[in-house]
Amino acid sequence: MSRPILLVKSGGEAAMPEWQRHFAEHAPGVEVRWWDDPAVDPAAVRYALVWDPEPGRLAGLPNLRVIFGSGAGVDFITADPDLPKGVPLARMATAGAAQRMGEYVTWAVLSLLRGARRIGAAQAERRWDYFEPERIATGTTVGIMGLGHMGQAAARMLQGVGFRVTGWSRSPKDMPGIRSFAGMAERDAFLAGADIIVCLLPATPETRGVISAPLFDRMRDGTGLVNAGRGSHQRIEDILAALDSGRLSGAVLDVFDQEPLPPDHPAWTHPKLLVTPHVASLPPRGERAAHVGALIAMHERGEPLPNLYDHARGY
Ligand code: NAP
Ligand code: GLV
Questions:
Q1: What is the dihedral of CA 299, 295, 15, 99, to 10 degrees?
Q2: Ligand 2: residue whose CA is nearest its atom 4
């Protein structure tokens, strides 16, 4: 009997040998095929692992049982108006992904604290730019927008370095030592109390464009900003203006509306902005295949899958 097919669109066709090697170890019961393989019978596809499927394609797979998002954020999948809503959509919520995000956010926050952008610019010019950063972690409050899988890992890691940490989410959280703010009613108090704001929200209609001038108006002058959520969360022209005016003291951005960020974009050269190329948290393919293999086994045993996308919530 032929094995059920797992169709993959993540990393391009060139990544297929690597995916096949990892799935041979972690899910030997499935046959792993490239998304655009013309020899694949759509009726034989039981699973799909995708980052940004073309709209309508998933709806053309009549026996699809589970869609696996190749990332934690699945907005490039849910943008499909024909997405089959009855098929569970699993997010890539691995422990390693949360660890990586925690490390990135800790690095970004410490970079703001210690003036990494300024130091890098001076080194590129062989200039001895002596300065004394005023703040230390124990006197700095980091506010995390989005206290989910990623946000909670980042919060714990920042706490470990000595930062005071607060978080903002839709529902209140009970995390030792972390002050939780919930909903729009508590958003402004959260913003006013932070020295550095970190965005780890999902991309939803409510969070679109949230990192923009009206938000900065609710923050203290000179607040630092980190965005590792999605480019759609930010208005980049507002961020650049706020950096120029001093409303924001510095920013680290990992995500942009247009990726790759075009070479002539002013964000590249702004002296108070560190740009990273959407690298905050990307587990290697072996780790993602192990996670998907474990979820396939759970699904085949009839067990409920964790971290499913909720169509009503939008994340
Ligand atoms: P998650 O577990 O779903 O957590 C989302 C958090 O945001 C939850 O705490 C949720 O509140 C909160 N939230 C959602 N809508 C809100 C709203 N309107 N107001 C206030 N809080 C709201 O997601 P995750 O796994 O942590 O990932 C978060 C995002 O990070 C992803 O969606 C993705 O865009 C981004 N990401 C980026 C990278 C990268 O490399 N740059 C890597 C991975 C993920 P509740 O807890 O109350 O539900
Ligand atoms: C990366 O951006 C992810 O959502 O995992």
A1: 160
A2: 73
Residues 289 and 236 in one domain: no
Asked, for residue 307, whether it belongs to a domain, the answer is no
Strand ranges (DSSP E) for the chain? 5-9, 31-34, 45-50, 66-69, 89-90, 141-145, 164-169, 179-182, 196-199, 223-227, 248-253, 273-275
**Which of 10, 103, 150, 215 for a ligand 1 pocket mutation test, highest count of atoms within 8 Å of Cβ?**
150
Distance 105 CA to ligand 2 centre (A): 14
Shared domain check, 187 and 74: no
- Which ligand has its closest atom nearest to the C-alpha of 228? 1
CA distance 271 to 260: 20
Residues acting as catalytic residues? 230, 278
Q: Whose C-alpha lies nearest to ligand 1, atom 8? A: 148
Residue 59 belongs to domain spanning: 5-94+283-300
Assigned token pair, 88: 């569970």
Mean pLDDT by 10 residues, the chain (315 residues): 93 98 98 98 97 98 98 97 98 96 98 98 98 95 98 98 98 98 98 98 97 98 98 98 98 98 98 98 97 98 97 96
